[in-house]
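Narrative of activities, Objective 1.

The group set out to show that a structural description can be obtained from nothing but a protein's sequence at a throughput compatible with the screening campaign. Below is one input-output pair from the validation batch, recorded exactly as produced.
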Amino acid sequence: MAVADVRPAVTADASEITRIQRVTWQAAYADLLPPEVLATLDTPDAEEAWREALAQPTARVFVATEGEWTVGFCAAGPAPAEAVASADGALPEDSDRVGLVSVLLVEPRWGRRGHAGRLLAAAGEALRGEGAERGVTWLPQSDTASESFYRKAGWEPDGTARTLDAGGRPFREVRLTGPLDIPLVERGGGAGGVPSDADPR
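Output recorded for this entry:
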């Protein structure tokens, strides 16, 4: 049986991260995003953007592996003001101690094997090490599988929502918040924010 693990991503992982993002979005968001938005994931620019992001010293990106295969990834970091503000723009008192899980994806064919739980736990540990006391993430409103996953990790919707412009089509998201001392979540639905996978374990 192949060993499953999570490790920090390096620039050489950019190609696999891009592929996983493309495959997962195309599977999960075909009914939510216009074809032209999904098509942007299948360009050299998409891989180059990840390569540049991974080269930054502040990058907090992790990849999940099973044996020789890269099966998922997660990106996290300090939450910018717009990620934690209330609907009226007010910032919470702990805004400088909040981490953002901006993306968590596992390729669908590797789903339901605990990879997303391990990724979230690794991101939580890294964020706590940098002084964060809680985390937030944004999920598509219709992504009940991802919400179920985060709920099992102790995260809950905080009542804040936003609507993005996805290639001329409205894309509604809700915000969840929760602890960063995260137990492994073995089963559940998707995990992510935008982007996210409908069912990554």
